[in-house]
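Archive entry. Fields below.
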Amino acid sequence: MDRLQIDAEHVIARYLAGQLSSTEENGFEDYVASHPEIFREIESTLRMKEGLAVLRDRGELQALLRGRDWRPSFAAAAAAVLVVLALGVWSWRHAAAPMAPVLAGLPGFVGRDSGSLPVFASYTLIRSRGESADVEIRLPAQHAAIQIKILPSVLVTEGRYRATLQRIEADGEKSVVRDIDGLQAGGDRFVTLYLDSAQLTPGSYQISLEQADSSAASEADRFSLHAK
Amino acid sequence: MQLTGLGMQEAPHREVLPQEILRDMAGLQLQLVRVTRDRDLAADILQDAVVTALQKLRAGEISDRAQLDGYVYRVALNHFRNHQRKDKSHVSDRDAPAALADTAARELPESLGQAQWARVAKQLLNEITPARDRELLVRFYLNEESKEQLCESFGLSDLHFNRVIFRARSRFKELLKRRGLGRSDFWSIAFILLVP
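PREDICTED_STRUCTURE:
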């Protein structure tokens, strides 16, 4: 008998269980007599038997035998890696367009952080002297946000602004798409808000910005937009 | 139960303490206690083996430490197997050994070594899937059912059986090594020898 046979045929466990034939037993005992290092293997097997016996004595064994079989398989791990890669690629592709905070479900006009959409385009609106032309807003093919940055004529550091988006029909009639209070100018003095592209259709719009708490009839900043 | 009067000061080798010899056979000791269901008897068997081995060392029949350990282990192992055979000849149904072991276990406090090996065995079982392979392991090592019985019962090939057992055995050794249980074995032995 040699070590290879002892390992391959589980000779130690079978010897301890009295399952060897007399020939096998003699062969193993001869090996043991000349290879005392095999006792480490025997001892290891006895410790496993003892460990299992203790679990049985404690009444824990049955629960361990019935225990869950879930273990992350190679396929699951590979799938997880693919998902992570896909998310990485998606994030990278959208990195050029920063995620816009968009209040989901609001019709068209938003200004607060909630939810998120990729920012399709950003427009800066500054009032100027003289006749102002319509600002062309290109609507995205996919659902996205359009960032609008407005520089208020009157900077109110502590106060709030109200923005109103109105759709202008062909006959000149206006309908409010959305208005929102409580907007503040940022550190760059601009008031930033977002339009939800899903709520916009091609056509003319007007966006206005005014002080929310102004009792005086201050003039609002108005800009004409043309969505296409 | 003290190993005295051996005249070890006359021995040609440095004095070998019984604890040193017993240190690496904690598993055998505890299995011996389990099979004899008598701690004193198990201690006597080991003590006899150690005394005989030390006498052989003095007489020059054993030349080195490895042989000494091997001799003690072999003698104790023979006793273990003799008691096991005797034990099995008295039981006729499959569940009886477990019931007897349970009775023995209730009578004995759990040692530190046992607790550690149980922890490793638990980790091993938690790592093995599916449940069938866990049951295979337990029935082979603990219930001592034969390979042929188990392969037939589970409808397994030799190859599958060998793979499960080989992996489990290797993993258990790895976990034992990783937890460095050898260092604490002394205390489990001391516990067994000292607790009345």
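CURATOR_NOTE: Chain A has two domains: 3-66, 99-227.
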